[in-house]
């Protein structure tokens, strides 16, 4: 914490951060990996993380280094971190429902557990965060409250991303209503909808 | 509380009782109870850091037969003297936390000022 404050002080003193670690946080299946790939592709990095409809596809932190994000004449050098989805439960039976064999499902479950613990540890090491929501789900959950509370207590800049606005039943306004204290952008990472607005906000709010 | 054959135990723990315990003792107590299919209601809020540790412990303990927990709660609303209380290292604990095993709590619906949950009978 003390180190972070000193780092932020010197970063401001010398004209802003040269490079930031941008973490993508949220529960499983909110579209973090789709968004990470979209950002990476839009700025010449290519896809770097696997996407799946089965929960907990990302079971370890995936990193895309040295991306240069540009918007409105401003640029940020960043390392993009696709985090495993944070959940309070991991049940191998959930994976079996997707047709996975029990042994494979149990392994996936173990890896998912490690991934969640790793993502929690990284909460202390990111410089800024996109907290990603599925706009068809209720945003006010203890997992989201916990992620936001921990980032806020460390004074890490936060931008909420109401994703999946292309889906029927999406209500991105619920994200804003649940957490009105944070800036929020509505997007569809899958369709690339409103990404320019997201990049503008990243530069404005997080850099 | 007597355990019923086809029921759910719900235990309410008062703020006074919780005040006598360290957070690690509370965590141990919570997990001992929820693994025994009890839903625990704490008459206090948890800090962001404590919630993080609760989630971490839940997934660390998850295995066949115990998939982890569900928890819901109300936090203390921000007050005018929060900065002063933090300065003195005091924590505001007004609030409520409900914790149960996720194979007992089937569905939760949470808002800032309302909670509903559906518990599953055996």
Summarize the structure in short.
Chain A has 207 residues and is of the alpha/beta class.
Protein architecture, described:
The complex is a heterodimer of chains A (207) and B (122). By secondary structure, chain A is an alpha/beta fold. Chain A has one domain (20-206): P-loop containing nucleotide triphosphate hydrolases (Rossmann fold, 3-Layer(aba) Sandwich), CATH 3.40.50. Chain A is 38% helix and 20% strand. Chain A has helices at 2-13, 32-42, 92-96, 102-122, 142-153, 173-178, 195-206; strands at residues 19-25, 62-71, 74-82, 128-134, 158-163, 184-186. A 6-stranded mixed β-sheet of chain A has the order 2-3-1-4-5-6. Chain B has one domain. With 122 residues, chain B is α+β, with helices and mostly antiparallel strands. The radius of gyration of chain B is 15 Å and the shape is globular. The longest helix of chain B has 14 residues, at 48-61. Chain B contains 4 helices and 6 strands, in the order E-H-H-E-H-E-H-E-E-E. Chain B has helices spanning 15-19, 23-34, 48-61, 82-87; strands at residues 9-13, 38-42, 69-74, 96-101, 105-110, 115-119. The two termini of chain B are 17 Å apart. Helix content of chain B is 30%, strand content 27%. In chain B, the strands form 2 sheets. Chain B has a 4-stranded mixed β-sheet with strand order 1-2-4-3. A two-stranded antiparallel ribbon of chain B has the order 5-6.
């Amino acid at each position: 914490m003390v180190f972070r404050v000193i780092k932020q002080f010197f970063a401001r003193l010398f004209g802003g951060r040269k490079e930031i670690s941008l973490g993508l946080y949220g529960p499983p299946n909110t579209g973090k990996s789709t968004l990470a790939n979209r950002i990476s592709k839009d700025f010449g990095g290519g896809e770097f993380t696997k996407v799946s409809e089965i929960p907990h596809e990302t079971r370890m932190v995936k990193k895309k280094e040295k991306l240069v994000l540009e918007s409105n004449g401003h640029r940020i050098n960043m390392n993009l971190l696709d985090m495993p989805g944070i959940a309070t439960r991991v049940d191998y039976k959930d994976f079996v429902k997707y047709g996975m064999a029990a042994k494979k499902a149990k392994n996936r479950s173990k890896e998912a557990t490690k991934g969640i613990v790793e993502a929690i540890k990284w909460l202390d090491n990111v410089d800024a965060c996109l907290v990603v929501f599925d706009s068809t789900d209720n945003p006010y959950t203890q997992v989201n409250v916990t992620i936001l509370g921990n980032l806020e207590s460390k004074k890490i800049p936060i931008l909420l991303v109401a994703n999946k606005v292309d889906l029927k039943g999406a209500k991105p306004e619920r994200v804003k209503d649940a957490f009105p204290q944070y800036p929020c952008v509505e997007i569809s990472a899958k369709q690339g909808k409103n990404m320019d607005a997201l990049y503008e906000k990243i530069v404005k709010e997080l850099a | 509380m007597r355990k019923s054959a086809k029921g759910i135990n719900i235990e309410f723990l008062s703020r006074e009782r919780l005040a006598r315990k360290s957070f690690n003792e509370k965590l141990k107590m919570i997990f001992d109870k929820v693994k025994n299919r009890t839903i625990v209601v704490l008459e206090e809020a948890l800090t962001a850091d404590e919630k993080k540790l609760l989630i971490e412990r839940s997934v660390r303990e998850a295995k066949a037969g115990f998939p982890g927990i569900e928890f819901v709660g109300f936090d203390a609303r921000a007050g005018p003297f929060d900065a002063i209380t933090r300065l003195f290292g005091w924590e505001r604990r007004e609030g409520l936390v409900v914790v149960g095993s996720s194979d007992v709590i089937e569905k939760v619906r949470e808002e800032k000022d309302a909670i509903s949950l559906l518990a599953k009978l055996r």
